[in-house]
Q: What sequence folds into this?
């Protein structure tokens, strides 16, 4: 009997340990590193979901819309996006453009970028109905703020986070939209946008817009939301410093050259002014994990032991930034960093 009792105790302890280990892996995306503290800004990263692609549809020239179905999906608010893990393992971010109240599916859209880094081409050419994709989120860095009136500026595929905002605006609120694109055929959801505007709230511009004229009379107190190519967002930000922006490409990662010590590897590297920490590290440690190379997915997050970081990512919280960085986009503020690599 004592032996049976001992075996039962050992088996119970093993079961509890396995459950604890499973929980640890789920709550820490970088396990076996310790789970990071509760964030002081932003939100914790969401657990991954496996969703079925039930629609793969071209909704404008060079723009594909995906419908991803599941069960009891987390709710979201206008401006939110998903991290989508593509079949190759690449992680890309796409704004949700469907109905926030629909807990059975998510809708995203992406434009083909022929000379990009491969993510959009993979969605257009390899993702098909019937496939399953892993997604993480939703997360929202671009919420619709409360205001007495609104001005929206969208460039091309930048309409995707703004479309749910337009649908969610309360009746009677003042708003207008400047929607820019190469031509009408390339502008997704244009017909719906024009219907929402009722004919006088939406200005459609084919080609480069004259912001000085089109945004000359923005009312005081209006909230300005903008998403589109970097040049358009920079121009809007120059006119309206308080504009709310959504970026899916990182701010420039260029800067001065600096040194990075890899403490566990015993190596010291030079990061040139026109390169990244990730590129320098992978030249010496080619198995270093990475994915998006844009400061969004968190795959390349590394612990910082010494030095001040110029954080240029769109993901880490204040607590995480105190002792780690995304080496694909962030740099040193001084001339040296020490990483736990």
A:
């Amino acid at each position: 009997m004592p032996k049976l009792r001992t075996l039962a105790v050992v088996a119970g302890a093993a079961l509890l340990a396995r459950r604890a280990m499973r929980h640890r892996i789920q709550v820490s995306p970088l396990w076996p590193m310790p789970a990071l503290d509760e964030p002081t800004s932003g939100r914790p990263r969401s657990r991954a979901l496996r969703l079925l692609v039930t629609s793969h549809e071209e909704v404008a020239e060079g723009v594909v819309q995906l419908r991803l179905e599941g069960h009891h999906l987390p709710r979201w608010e206008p401006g939110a996006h998903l991290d989508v893990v593509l079949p190759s393992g690449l992680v890309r971010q796409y704004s949700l453009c469907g109905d926030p109240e629909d807990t059975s599916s998510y809708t995203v859209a992406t434009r083909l970028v022929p000379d990009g880094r491969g993510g959009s081409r993979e969605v257009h050419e390899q993702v098909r109905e019937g496939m399953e994709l892993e997604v993480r989120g939703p997360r929202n860095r671009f919420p619709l703020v409360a205001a007495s009136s609104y001005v929206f500026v969208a460039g091309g595929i930048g309409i995707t986070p703004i479309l749910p905002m337009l649908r969610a605006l309360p009746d009677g609120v003042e708003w207008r939209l400047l929607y820019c694109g190469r031509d009408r055929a390339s502008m997704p959801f244009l017909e719906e946008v024009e219907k929402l505007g009722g004919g006088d709230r939406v200005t459609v511009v084919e080609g480069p817009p004259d912001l000085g004229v089109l945004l000359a009379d923005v009312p005081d107190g209006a909230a300005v939301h903008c998403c589109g190519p970097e040049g358009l967002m920079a121009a809007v930000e120059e006119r309206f410093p308080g504009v709310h922006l959504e970026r899916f490409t990182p701010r420039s990662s260029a800067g001065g050259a600096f040194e990075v010590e890899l403490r566990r590897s015993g190596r010291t590297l030079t990061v040139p002014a026109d390169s990244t920490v990730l590129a320098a590290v992978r030249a010496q440690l080619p198995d270093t994990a990475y994915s998006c190379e844009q400061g969004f997915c968190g795959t390349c997050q590394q612990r910082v032991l010494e030095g001040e970081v110029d954080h240029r990512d769109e993901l880490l919280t204040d607590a995480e930034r105190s002792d780690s960085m995304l080496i694909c986009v962030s740099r040193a503020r001084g001339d040296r960093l020490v990483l736990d690599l």
